[in-house]
């Protein structure tokens, strides 16, 4: 058990790779990664441990559960923490202020990815509805085109991942997230990382987290 509780979230627009970054954080530092969609599903279905306010969440490090956002989820942040997972995923200023009433964040990581990169990533993304498994036709395609690797069931493209919807979706995120980012910047807890590839951003995230908590895997092992 870590001696210090670290409450942190990863902010980023849709398609920025925040889920991938959080999964690597979980592996490298022995933490639980809780996506916003997963949190809502577990809150409704029960199970897991307890965090402040008694909301059910996953406990210490365990298998991740990725997936498309559940209805009403916050498609803009992914939380992680040491020992007790923090259920914070502020996408808007109102959500950030609501989170303040539950817990105080120690660290906020913001992923800044160019618009064109995000547009290409989102337009190439397909999901398996039943499990939430996500595929990208450019760099993480299914073994057989159009079907899920494990079940063989058809993959679908979410309505808001279709090319015509992506631009509006990204503009909406930018407008909503700007005051959130400014809030955490003013508190001195915001750390921003820019780039087009998660593999190139990750070493800087790893170095930052290593200065806060001890890793269980080296950067090369991840």
From TrEMBL:
Pfam families in the record: AAA_17, ADK, ADK_lid
GO molecular function, one term: ATP binding
Domain Adenylate kinase active site lid: 125-160
Biased composition (Gly residues): 45-69
Gene3D superfamilies with a match to the protein in the record: P-loop containing nucleotide triphosphate hydrolases (3.40.50.300)
InterPro entries in alphabetical order: Adenylat/UMP-CMP_kin, Adenylate_kinase_lid-dom, P-loop_NTPase
Keyword terms, alphabetized: Kinase, Nucleotide-binding, Transferase
Region (Disordered): 45-72
CDD domains found in the cross-reference section: ADK
Family of this protein: Belongs to the adenylate kinase family.
Name of the protein this chain belongs to: KAD4 kinase
Lineage, top ranks: Eukaryota, Metazoa, Chordata, Craniata, Vertebrata
Gene name tied to this protein: Ak4
